[in-house]
Request: fold
Amino acid sequence: MATNQMISYQTLAFGELTQQDVVTVRETIGKACDESQFKLFMSIAKSAGANPVMNEIYPAVRQGQLTVQFGVDFFVRKAKESEGYRGYDVQLVHEQDEFKMHQEKGEDNEYHLVIDEHSFGFPRGKVIGGYCTAYREGKKPFTVVMEVDEVDHFRKSNIGMQKTMWTNYFNDMFKKHMVRRALKAAYSLSFEDETTVGNEGVPEYKPQERKDITPNHEVIDSPKKPSKPENEDIDAIDEAKTEMVKKFERLGIPKGKARTEYIEKNARDIKGEPTLPQLLGLLELMDMHIEMHDAQLDDNDELE
Reply:
C-alpha cells in the first residue's frame, strides 16, 4: 500500500488498534467498501470502541449501502465491563431432549422465565429451540427462549454471506443470536446487531439509540469530492436537514456560528452543499453525541 495511503489512515487507529491493523482491516473485511464507506465504518468503530480485528464489528456493502454489524464478542465485552457481570449460559434444545420451563412472578410483580428441567441423552435429534440466561449481581437472571422457526428467515436470507453462515453453521449462529439478545436486555446494551448507514440511493434514516460510546469521536476527511444530488434525493436531503436542526436543539447548540463550528469539527468532509450520504453520516454521529449528552445529564442528576 502506498505511503500516502498509510498516512491517511493514521487518525483511524484507536485503543490497541494500530495503523497497520487499520490497513489490514481495509484489505480484508473492508475490501468491499469504497474509501468513504471504509472511513465512515472506522469512525463508527472508533466511537463505539469496537475492534474490527477482534471480530467485534465489521462492514458489509449491500446494493451500494454500508451496513455496520456488531459481533457477539462486542456484546460480551460490553457486558463484562458493566457492573455486576456474572456471565451467561446458552444451550440448544433438541427434539429428543426433556425440556420444561415456566414463568414465575417475583416480588417486583414482574414475570421471569425459569428453566425447570433440561436433560438429554444421545441421539438428541434435530435442534428445535434454545435458550440463553444472562446473570447479573443483584438482578433476577434474564432468560431468552427461542424456537428455531423464529430464526429460520436467516437461512432463507437473500444476503449471500448471511444465508451461507446460517446454513453451514446454524447451531453456532443460533447460539450467538440468543447470547446477543440476552446480554442486550440484561445489561441495557442498546447497540443494534446491524445498522445500515446511508451511502447510495435514498435510504430511510432511522435514529439508533447507542450507549457506552466513548467521547473520542472524530470524523475522517474524505478524499472524494461531494457529488451533486440527484433530483430524487432532494426531498430526502430536506428531511435530513430538518432532522439535523432538531438534533442541534437536543444538543443545546444555538443557531449560527456554533452550529457551523460543530459541522466543521465533526463532519469535515462536508464542503459547501452536503450530499445525502454526508447528512446521514452526520445524523448518525449526532445521535451518538446526544446519547453522551443525555448520559452526562443523568450523571449530574445523580450527583445532586
